[in-house]
């Protein structure tokens, strides 16, 4: 019984850490979005970015992905679309192949295996952010 306060304190610390990690991950995903996606998809993800009018195909509203999929956010499909290296390309090819771009960015720093981990992390961060902005 004397260890109960210690256990409660450790549990609270763990919950706080998980919340902090989640907030940190969302801020990284949001930063990735702002840096790489907002120019076309818009700051709020509604397809109204400053470059949207220059696209040859309509820029989709990213806030209704789940609504257009029976209320379920298709995480794996979004990861594949963002990455673009698996043959699933975003909206008819004007979207950059982010997996390839992210890998080029990381290759000198992390080598071939480490750069792939970095690519997957960045793509997952973006997909998680998109899941968080669903209406």
List the helices and strands in order: HHHH
The largest pleated sheet is described as: none
Strand content: under 5%
Helical segment count: 4
Low-confidence sequence ranges:
none
Helix content: 55-70%
Give me the count of strands. 0
Distance between the termini: 47 Å
Q: Which assembly state applies to the chains in this document?
A: single chain
Structure description:
This protein is an all-alpha fold and 135 residues long. The protein has one domain. It has four helices and no strands. 20% of the residues are buried.
What would the keywords be for this entry?
about 0% strand; about 140 residues; 4 helices; mainly alpha
Q: Any chance you could write out the topology, listing elements then pairs?
A:
Layout: H1 4-36, H2 38-41, H3 75-83, H4 98-132
Helix pairs in contact: 1-4, 3-4
